[in-house]
Amino acid sequence: MALSGVEIFKLLPKTNCKKCGFPTCLAFAMKLAQRQTSLDKCPDVSEEAKRILGEASAPPVRPITLGVGDKAVKMGEETVLFRHEKKFVNPTVLALEIKDTDDEARQDQKIEDVLTSEINRVGQLLRVDAICITNESGDAAKFEALAKKVSEKAADVPVIVATEDPEAAKVALGHFSGKNPLLYGVTSENLEAMVSVAKDAKAIVGVKADGLEALSELTEKVKSLGVEDIVIDSGAKKGSQILEHNTLIRRAAIKKNFRPLGYPVINFVQRDDPLYETLLVGLGIAKYASIVVMSSAEKWKNLALFTLRQNIYTDPQVPMQVEQKIYKIGEPTPDSPLLITTNFSLTYFIVSGEIENSKVPAYLAVMDCEGLSVLTAWAAGKFTGAKIANFIKESGIEKELNHRELIIPGYVAILSGAIEEKLEGWKVTVGPREANAIPTFLRSRAA
Amino acid sequence: MAFVVPKESFAGKVFPVTIGTEIQETFGGENTLPFHSFEGEIPNRPLIAYEIQDIPPEDWPETVREVYSEVSDDPAKWAKYCVDELKAKAIALRLIGTHPDQKDLSADDAVKVVKEVLEAVKVPLIILGSNHVDKDSEVLVKVAEVAKDRNCIIGKAQEANYKTIAAAAMANGHKLIAMSELDINLSKQLNILITQMGFEKERLITDPMCSALGYGLEYTYSVMERIRLAALAQNDPVMQPPMLADVGMYVWKIKETQASEEDLPEWGSLQERGILWEAVTTASLLLAGAELIIMRHPKAVELVERFIDEMMG
Ligand code: B12
Ligand code: SF4
Predict the structure, then answer these.
(1) pLDDT surpasses 60 at A62
(2) Contact A124/B at CB under 8 A
(3) A353 vs B: CB within 8 A
(4) What's the pLDDT at A171?
(5) pLDDT in tens, A168-192
(6) Which CA distances in Å does B142 have to A237, B52, B172?
(7) Domain boundaries, chain A
(8) Any idea which architecture A5-56 has in CATH?
């Protein structure tokens, strides 16, 4: 359980020496309780206090990083059950399974699918994050061949090594040294041998048990062998059971501070039909999975899943927004058109994308409306004639243009009079309502 | 440390709502969060209604329009096709043609269509206006009369027009959809206003307003979760009607369900993408608490039904 400011204060040196940057130990304690500073800022804190505070302040779901470098992915650190309470922290890792029984061509294709999965959506680069290699054959040599291939062709992609055989694990992990892989497949049967392989290879330990009770016992045993970074699988396969287990695990960790289940969860949701499988991956994204392993990564499937993950993991308090400024699209000249919109990321990216599609260079004035869409901002009184006029004047865009024409979104046609009144010498043109009509609109004007 | 199962049970319960006469369907009625049958009772499955409309669906994208190309010129034929061929359990008839910006069809035109559809199929019917506040009060009042005692759902009543529409639903024995705009307080407020007219809260369906995956889904998702928690944990009776997710119309107008693969190769096949967009949006909102869904593509419905099977079992 988290400690209160006063409880923390009792553990501090109480000298008010200010070395932490706060006027008193109490002030520092209060900030610590709110998690707005860190204990290492106080140079004089005792080892005993460090231990107690460290344990108490450990996040209820352990933070773990899979992989290394630019493509490394963080997991865990979650603090709530419902996204309206607070932002979900680390987006679900999507992992594509490659089996050592898949034929070579299929293996190559899947690696290619992962490598080419990156899509830019609303300014974020999204991709299939990891590869899960599975020792379906039971043959260590076959498994190693796959590990070698993946390590060569997809060197920077985080890897999950899935096998219950310590020998196979060892040879496969040999290809991922220094890469922070996850060794999945530690059970109560193979416990000691597998943990020792994982430790030698510096791999995260993925444990698998049948049900939550067995799982808690297993993580305790793994921990007693000196392992901190654990990822857990309750064995749930069916949708209803995944929901039940993931929910109970998240609740136990967060509401009861039950440490044995305070780890990132991995779900395996492979199904025969990739369309249908997508819904199960979606279940994992919405309901607390840190890693979901899937059997295919078609482009249409990825797009839907990336979008869902982005939606579920956005901050409910702050809509995604872009900076207020006049953006240049293409290479506009003083005669190029000037369009205006709001700074909601989604709006900006849709509109700027369509202007790009039109191939007509243009200026896009993006006005700060606290991240609201055009109609929402209008309804909230943040996208009004007076404010728009002000923004255009202050932006200095007038100096760069030969004309005085502003194109506004069709949905706020009603604003044109008010803008013209406040923005002397300007003419307002009402653009189309939907952004997908912008290319035709701009091209017909340019012609 | 021994593991103690952290189960939660709630004082509150969602009202079950039964619609139809000859063939009936019931949704809602649970006393637990969506699909949490490990700690509560879920007596009914979520119900999916197939959306049809009074005029041919010219603005639906090809992927979904082509499914109905043989029948969509005639609402009764269309409804029958959904029931006979696609095994629809309920039909949602949207009178979009009455919208002044569409065909501006009259209330009498709408009455004729409703009559024909009621004759053509026996499954429960949801009758939706065009979302034009003034026109809807005119149209829905008349169609509620012609459907008298058929135990339909009428909608949608909004803050600006709820009085006439709720009165019509009440007088003719229908259930009513109350729609507000993505805000739990507005939604609660509207339900209160409607019940203050004497309309029973057990006959209401809350529509907190839908949005498509990638286009505000997170707002609908969280508003639904909050409404459901208010119903169960806070035992707030005004928040206990089941919820509607009107998915089809939001999904099948966005770029992801229309842009061709030639234009956007990185988005993959349009056919699968469109179907999946409707199915993923729906599945997510089911997880957030929706009990009544309106959808368009039969393949998406099939995927979601399979998902419900797996989640209920
Ligand atoms: C999500 C949402 C919200 C979210 C906010 C999300 C956000 N970041 O903006 C929340 C829940 C906070 C919200 C609140 C409100 N909302 Co609201 N909201 C929506 C919703 C569902 C989607 C908005 C959205 O994301 N659209 C997507 C973006 C991309 O659209 P867009 O910015 O308009 O851009 C498109 C076009 O305008 C065009 N375009 C954009 N820029 C430009 C520029 C040019 C030059 C051109 C040519 C075209 C163009 O291209 C884009 C794509 O086609 C809409 C309904 C709907 N389905 O549209 C209602 C909606 C906008 N909201 C509405 C209202 C009334 C409100 C509230 C006042 C009421 C309330 N619920 O409390 C509040 C006000 C907020 C406040 N702070 O006070 C109304 C507006 C009514 C009206 N007709 O003006 C709408 C239309 C709902 C309705 N009645 O159907 N809302
Ligand atoms: S540095 Fe440590 S001892 Fe000094 S004031 Fe801050 S908390 Fe107190």
Answers:
(1) yes
(2) no
(3) no
(4) 98
(5) 999 999 999 999 999 999 999 999 9
(6) 51, 19, 10
(7) 5-56, 64-312, 325-446
(8) Orthogonal Bundle (1.10)
Domain CATH for B31: 3.20.20.20
Q: Is A411 on the interface with B (CB under 8 A)?
A: no
CB burial string A362-376: b at 16+ within 10 A, e below: bbbbbbbbebbbbeb
Question: Which tokens sit at A36?
Answer: 């707005």
Domain membership of residue B69 (yes or no) is: yes
Within 8 A by CB and 6+ apart from B97, the residues are B53, B54, B55, B103, B105, B109, B110, B130
pLDDT at A51: 83
A 10 A CB-CB count for A48 gives 9
**pTM for this model (two decimals):** 0.90
pLDDT tens string A305-329: 999 999 999 999 888 888 999 999 9
Look at residue B162 and tell me if it is in a domain: yes
Look at residue A250 in the predicted model and tell me its pLDDT.
98
Architecture of the structural domain at A325-446: 3-Layer(aba) Sandwich (3.40)
Whole-Å CA distances, B96 to A5, B90, B99, B131: 59, 18, 6, 8
In this structure, what are the phi and psi dihedrals at residue B202, rounded to the nearest 5 degrees? Answer: -70, -10
Q: How far apart are CA A266 and CA A289, in angstroms?
A: 6
User: What interface predicted TM-score (ipTM) does this complex get?
Assistant: 0.93
Asked if the model's pLDDT at residue B223 lies above 50, the reply is yes
Give the pLDDT confidence score for residue A349 in this predicted structure. 87
CA distance A120 to chain B (A): 10
In a domain, B44, yes or no: yes
| Residue written as token pair 């060892």 | A170
Question: Is residue A1 over pLDDT 50?
Answer: no
CA distances from B220 to A153, A431, B128, B184 (A): 41, 29, 20, 10
CB–CB contact B284 A243 (8 Å):
no
Answer yes or no: do A304 and B222 touch at CB < 8 A.
no
HSE toward the beta carbon, residue B27, CA cutoff 13 A: 26
B11 assigned to some structural domain:
no
Q: Under an 8 A CB cutoff, do A298 and B279 touch?
A: no
pLDDT tens readout for residues B68-103: 999 999 999 999 999 999 999 999 999 999 999 899
Residues having CB within 6 Å of any atom of ligand 1: A 319, 339, 341, 344, 346-347, 350-351, 371-376, 378-380, 407-411, 431-432, 434-435, 438; B 181-183, 186, 211, 215-216, 219
Q: What is the CA(A347)–ligand 1 centre distance, in A?
A: 10
> For residue A21, how many C-alpha atoms fall within 13 Å in the half-sphere facing its CB?
8
What is d(CA A274, CA A133) in angstroms, rounded to the nearest whole number? 19
Domain count, chain B: 1
The amino acid at residue B192 is I
What contacts B113, CB < 8 A, 6 or more positions away?
A: B54, B75, B76, B93, B95
Q: What is the CATH code of the structural domain delimited by A64-312?
A: 3.20.20.20
Nearest residue (by CA) to ligand 2, atom 2, is A42
Which ligand gives the minimal distance to the CA of A37? 2
C-alpha–C-alpha distance, residues A307 and B151, integer Å: 38
Return the residue whose CA atom lies nearest to atom 7 of ligand 2: A25
- Domain containing residue B233: 19-312
Which residues of chain A neighbour B284 with C-beta distances below 8 Å? Answer: 282, 286, 308, 312
Q: Which whole number is the average pLDDT over A203-219?
A: 98
Minimal-distance CA residue of chain B relative to A256: B6
With beta carbons under 8 A apart, name residues in chain A contacting B2.
216
The pLDDT value recorded for residue A2 is 62
Q: Which of B213, B272, B303 sits opposite A300 (nearest CB)?
A: B272
